[in-house]
Write a structure and sequence with these properties.
It is a single chain. The chain is mainly β. It is built from one helix and ten strands; from the N terminus they run E-H-E-E-E-E-E-E-E-E-E. The strands form two sheets. A six-stranded antiparallel sheet has the order 2-3-4-1-6-9, with no helix packed on it. The protein has a three-stranded antiparallel sheet with strand order 5-10-7, with no helix packed on it. The radius of gyration is 16 Å and the shape is globular.
């Protein structure tokens, strides 16, 4: 299933996490687990996701390795001014399978639609959790009202 997604514009920030969770990785019970800090990751170079999201891959080379458990892909989009436009800015249809994506809109709005018919806008302060399951095709763009 799917819920919504969010957008970026002047002073806007969005955070997207794709989490690969397993029951074994999460463990069970109320006990907290504390671990020593092993590494501080340097700031990474930005790259474009589509034409609307200029992101830093936070875990960069550690994503999808045994170093990050549960497996976690984290992109952070710093504030970036976009001129008002009627052009669609974002990422067109693309597939996901077998993981959860979480989008948090710190500022701005992201319009989301998926192959299950879910459609909506994630606004400032809102969160979307999308379960990709056996496969989903979705897209996310700056919202029409915010672009």
């Amino acid at each position: 299933g799917s819920r919504r997604h969010a957008q970026i514009r002047p002073g806007a920030v969005a955070l997207t996490m794709a989490m690969f969770l397993s029951r074994a990785a999460l463990g069970s019970g109320p006990a907290a687990v504390y671990r020593a800090l092993r590494q501080t990751l340097p700031r990474t170079d930005k790259h474009w996701v589509g034409n609307g999201f200029h992101v830093h891959p936070v875990f960069n080379h550690l994503a999808f390795t045994k170093e990050v458990s549960p497996f976690l892909l984290l992109d952070y989009a710093t504030p970036l001014p976009f001129q008002p436009t009627s052009e669609r800015r974002g990422v067109g249809q693309h597939p996901h399978r077998g993981f959860e994506t979480v989008t948090i809109a710190f500022r701005g709005e992201v319009e989301h639609a998926d192959s299950l018919g879910n459609r909506g806008v994630i606004k400032t302060g809102e969160v979307q959790w999308m379960t990709a399951g056996r496969g989903i095709i979705h897209e996310e763009f700056h919202s029409r009202d915010f672009a």
